[in-house]
Amino acid sequence: MPNSMPQCKLLHHGVAANSSPKVIACIPRARSGDDGDGDNKHHEVDLVYASHLMLNIASPREISVGNDDENVGVGGANDNTNNNIERIWNVKQTLRTSTSLTEAETATAAANVSTRTAKRVITCVVQLKLYQDNGTVKNTTADNDVVVLVIGFSDGSLTSWIRPREQQDWKEHVLLVSAADDRNDPSSSSRISLEEAAMAATKGRSITDIDGFFGYYDEVENENEHDGDNNKHNMRRLNLSVCACSSGGAQYFRFSLTLNNEFSNPNQATIKATKRLIQTPSNTVKFNTIESKYGEESGDDNNKNSFGMFLVGTAAPRHNKIHVLVVPPGSLENAIQTAPIYSGSLTGHEDWITCFDWTKNISTTPINTSSDQGFDSKQTSTECCYLASGSQDGVIRLWKWVTTTTKMTAARTTSVEKDAGDFSNPIVSDDDDIDLDLEEEEIEGEARLVISQPSNYYELTTSVYLEALLIGHEDMVTSVAWHPDPKKLYDQDLILVSASMDRSIFLWSSSGESDCNNVGNNSDGAWLPIARVGSPSGILGGPVGASLLGYVNIQIEPEYGRWIMGHAHGGALHFFSCEQAIQAIEDDNISNKRQDEMTAEERSVQWKAQPCITGHFDEVTDLCWEALAGEYLITVSNDATCRLWASMTTSLDAWIEISRPQVHGYTLSAVTSISTINHKHHLVTGADEKEPRVFDGTHSFLRMLRMLSGRQRCIEDNTTNDGISRVDRAYMPSLGLSNKDTAADGADEDISGASTSSTMLPLERDLGSTSLWPETRKLFGHNSEIARLASTASARTCLSVDFSTPYIDEVVVASTTKARDVDSANIRLWDVDRNRCLQTLEGGHRSTVTALSFSPDGTYLASSGKDRRLCVWKRKSASDVSSEQNGLFFLASAVNSSHKRIVWSVHFCPYKPSILASGSRDGTIKLWEIVEGEADTSVNEYSKFVPTIDGGVSRQSNDKAEAVTSLAFSPTKSVDRSRGILAIGLENGFIQLWSVPIITSSNELKLEPPSLALTFDAHICHIGAVRKLAWRPTADDNNGPSVLASCSSDNGCRIFSVWLQKY
């Protein structure tokens, strides 16, 4: 690491996916020097998922945990100990959307910024396919040199993220802003008209789904007039064609981007065309091509034997349709002014259509035809593919698309050309539909739709037949996907995977064979579910954090189908791996005969649950490290859960959620660890209720810690270690909020139909039920909701400093509430072990106390809040305490109007207890020194600074500084012992490190002003207000990196490694 400036790296981002159904996509993994995970063929795919306004890119990684002789786990997941290699998914990269704020909003008060980001989320993510010059579409990106993502938002705006296939650097391009935004600076009146039309098309409506394609055209060489060598730079155009669905219908857009060979920042995206395609509220869209291989053998590639189409599923109250819109020929020409043309619709679904998926062409059959109507004999071929459509009516419909390609004797003019550039033809509306009940009475075997697409020498005629109805789900079908390699897995031509809100994922197969020759008849076999995967376990009737409410989406590993990912409502991403398929791919020692002999039951057990991607799905309000040694991170959230995160590696670059001590009925607002050498794994939480609650770790949790540490951490049996009586697990009661230590008081748990597990790590179903900690006591006394918690144990983050105060080993917990009057604006001090309130600190504040911090030696308690008053409470010495009623602390000093706005955070220096920092909404940070006089104590401000706005967010005005919402002193001392490192979090989500003076009264005149040491890269920062920063406890002479944790209103908690030793 460099010896001049600190550096940081994102180790972990723990966050759940948004609960919108279309926010997950699989992309090819970028090759880099960091891919040192062994065999790369398991790591060819990354998973992109959206959380709040961030894109998270997760990669799989294989890690060895535990020992071969250990048989430990959570929730009974102990059945596979032959090897201890766990495949986990970790977020390695995050992308921060630059469209989260307008320029005007970044210049306004921070409160407006926070309000803006809270109302806007990502609703859909899609990877566009490459539409090649010969009219074919690349369904995978194996041969593409760029990866293109298009993102839709809840306010109707669109952006695109693009990166070269072999690189990790992404570039964002704003495609369409919301109609409510005003940030355009168009260069011509024509562009104004087109952009206004595009913005008016969405009208701020939430985008429910997107799909489309992209293509290259117009490679241009621009001469650089200012270059003395008269160099020329190759440029090329990237054309994006997308269809976006919303409650206002389906809207078509064409965008144009300019890229150069060095992949530097492209020009602003230009809207080339837009058109309303469907007026009926639309829920889903899918782009596909009908392709024919006829003519390839003769080398006749210039004739485009294919055509593209958009399928749009409506969201009407009843009688919903699948509208088919064909993309005209010549869509990649320079003057792109074409739009999809309505070609008919398919009926049958009674409720909202939620999802589509296509198979590839599965057969090619030569057909002899007569020479009537100008066609040559033996010049016709037939291919077919299948479309699966799901709906909220719980039914999956399979449609067979049979395409006949005919070579004509002479060229003929297409009938589509007259409408190719027509953007004024009427939009499709269902208002005047005929009685759709009559359409269901069509003759069996008759084509539901016929599409003809002529070209110069070929004509493609596609007939659509209803193949089958798949009935088995008990709730709405949310996602369907065709398995990419069913032959190797089940010796079947087709396998369909479907997900539903009934908490199940089904694999469907036909007992017959797919045959395109029988175009007028359905297949002989029936479609039946052959396997069910899923994790329905959890607390029956429990909250989202303790039970699975259903799956909103699925993804399948695109090359071999080795794993299925289920996106659960609540944001957890469940993984199910078919180990039999992996073994067959790697070793090729499983014959098709053995696959044929396997029963359905034997096949179903091959899908086993793997470790999940988990995280909070609402604002994370507070966090802290385990107080004794920082073994794990504790977070609480408005999603009413408390979660524990631990590292699986000594390099701290792979973190997982290992326990969920509390799943509550109220939103959680505060947490503090009170672990000591005599009582480990002990914590207190506060919620929107009046009582802080105390929890103890379980035996199963300690076994999990031991397994992750690989026996390096000596955790003995608790009866001989700390004398604390522990239970193996806790139970959530059916009626009540307190976790119980006996099963008799627990709620019913749903374990029927749960997939078997091949992991020793806890799954989402275990985290929400079997990983709970028992509640040992409540702390009664407050009259309103808990606002903040702090403890003397958590204040000691610099482990190499020993303090000699007589009360250093005592653990005191401080709590505050949301004050509705002066009487409730107090601070209560607790002795948790004896379950009593030691003292109520009154007279210091007049409104809610939002910031608390103990000094590391336990002498001082600093508090501040909405009244802007900074109070320092001092611990009485033994000689001063004349009676128990006098209490332990007294108000030693107070500074009225310490800041101009509410004070959000205060923190003591961990190795100099007399130094205190405070941060406020007014954008200032102040440093204070507590000076002990002969008769009194004073708090003196000795430095003040305003953080600079950096990290790529532009501002039109710096009149109002960004609010400081959190700060924390690093436990690692600077090389210059007169200075320290202070981490600050801002309301715009950015994190900075500042070098600040650490003074004593003797050298006050020698101060150098605070200086900016490091600004974290914008893409690894939060996009919402930083609620809390906390350094992992460590020794100040630590040779490795320091570890900083942060949490935010964007639902995420982040862990960073920061190198400070040489600074």
Automatic annotation (TrEMBL):
Query: Biological process GO terms, please?
Result: tRNA wobble uridine modification
Q: Which Pfam families match?
A: WD40
Cite the repeat ranges for WD: 386-409, 470-509, 613-645, 842-883, 896-938
Does the entry feature the keyword tRNA-binding, yes or no? Answer: no
A GO CC term assigned to this protein in UniProt = elongator holoenzyme complex
- Localization: Cytoplasm; Nucleus
Its name, as the record gives it, is Elongator complex protein 2
